[in-house]
Amino acid sequence: MSQNTKIPFVDLVTPHQELQEELVNVFKSALATAGFVGGPMVDGFEREFATYCGAKHCVGVNSGTDALRFALTAAGVNPGDVVLTVPHTFIATAEAISQAGARPDFVDIDAHTYTMDPEMLRQYLQTQCAFDPATGRFVHRTLGKPVTAVVPVHLYGQMADMDAILELAGRYNLAVIEDACQAHGAEYFSKKENRWRKAGSMGHAAAFSFYPGKNLGACGEGGAVITDDETIARKAKMLRDHGQSRKYYHDIEGYNGRLDSIQAGFLRVKLKHLPDWNESRREHARKYNELFAAAATSAITPFEAPWSKAVYHLYILQVENREAVQADLAKENIDTGIHYPVPLHLQKAYSSLGYKQGAFPVCEKVAEHILSLPMFPGLSEADQERVVHAVVQSAQCAGPQSVLRA
User: Fold this and answer.
1) Torsion sign, CA atoms 68, 138, 190, 88
2) Do the domain assignments include residue 4?
3) 219 shares a domain with 282
């Protein structure tokens, strides 16, 4: 293969070509039955994905954003509440909180995992919250609003430290809603339970996205709420369907947030392949790590904690002079991404929260250096070698690791 052949950031063509016959059969079945909304395809996917995640209930919805919004509302988050999450994530995490009527607030991330730092969460809860005996809730000292939930984000396919987060949430009476939109099939070893748990199975509820580029992606939009709580599942089902408890009986005001039957059928086909696809991603991550270690470059490769089995939705590198490295790779016909260049607390959309530069130093430092390399199941070893060679050869990649990681 020519060294000038493009290496895409993600390949969405090949897996769909390989599964074309099965995917087309899903569409033919929908045409034959006119089952376009709800019905057996959705029910079947919900049942199978709940089993895959190790949860009792799955509620299919039309996006990961709605999944998180519905999960928050169904778990009891009310307008005016404060919900904690991280500033290093896609804006949909905070949007879902805002759209549930709550106020997003942030705690910094761990410098190694890029997920919520439990110590920063502890400090926030101890210094910013006070117990209100009248309500039995913890209230933000400055805002005077109840702090009712925490949303840890399993970012890039890496699990947040759930034991520590759940322990703090229990102490402060917080609902835990996992943002697992990038973590389909990721696992966490719970020392408390002495067993591995799947992403989405540990909190009160969890949100998944099936955007096409995800490890389990639809051929369009899609999402799901996962929970063991029957009450949360029942309310999420009403929220996705205009608040209906049964047809034309609206117990609450809801939304049009249903998962299309055809997309559910596509997801059922793909779910059978997800374990193999995830293992391929893990193998590619190991190969990248080996190649970068052998090159003795200053670039920082992903850290996988001993309690985590990551599924590498993205393979994130930290480099000095990120934009120059990205430009050098583009010259070599190698596609890359940046996830995410501007932390949420510094986005114009959230300027009303009043945060300034320096509020979350770990997140801000990471945001200056992250670069996402090509990562998908069909990535070849030869292409990985070419990617790593291009990074190493970039003149802008020099500098001690301590500058990046500190």
Assistant:
1) positive
2) no
3) no
Q: How far is CA 367 from CA 67, 69, 203, 215, 311, in A?
A: 26, 26, 27, 23, 21
Q: How many CB atoms are located within 10 Å of the residue 242 CB? A: 15
Nearest to 92 by CA among 153, 15, 170: 153
H or E stretch covering 148: strand 147-150
Asked if residue 184 is part of any domain, the answer here is yes
Mark 198-219 as b/e (b = at least 16 C-beta within 10 Å): bbbbbbbbbbbbbbeebbbbbb
Domain boundary, last residue among 242, 271, 300: 271
In this model, does residue 406 exceed pLDDT 90?
Answer: no
Q: Which pair of structure tokens corresponds to residue 356?
A: 């300034």
Both tokens of 354, joined, read: 């009043």
Distance CA 392, CA 403 (A): 17
- pTM recorded for the entire structure: 0.96
Structure tokens at 195: 């067993």
Structural domain of 378:
275-405
Structural domain contains residue 2: no
Beta bridge partners of 140: 129
Task: Write the CB contacts of 305 (distance below 8 Å, at least 6 apart in sequence).
Answer: 112, 113, 158, 159, 161
Residues 214-247: tens digit of each pLDDT: 999 999 999 999 999 999 999 999 999 999 999 9
Nearest Cα residue to 318 out of 151, 88, 127, 99 = 88
d(CA 317, CA 391): 10
Token duo for residue 93: 């995490």
Same domain, 43 and 179: yes
Distance CA 389, CA 381 (A): 12
Burial class of residue 366, CB neighbours in 10 A (0-12, 13-18, 19+): buried
What CA–CA distance (Å, rounded) separates 378 from 284?
9
3-state secondary structure 204-215: CEEEEECCCCCC
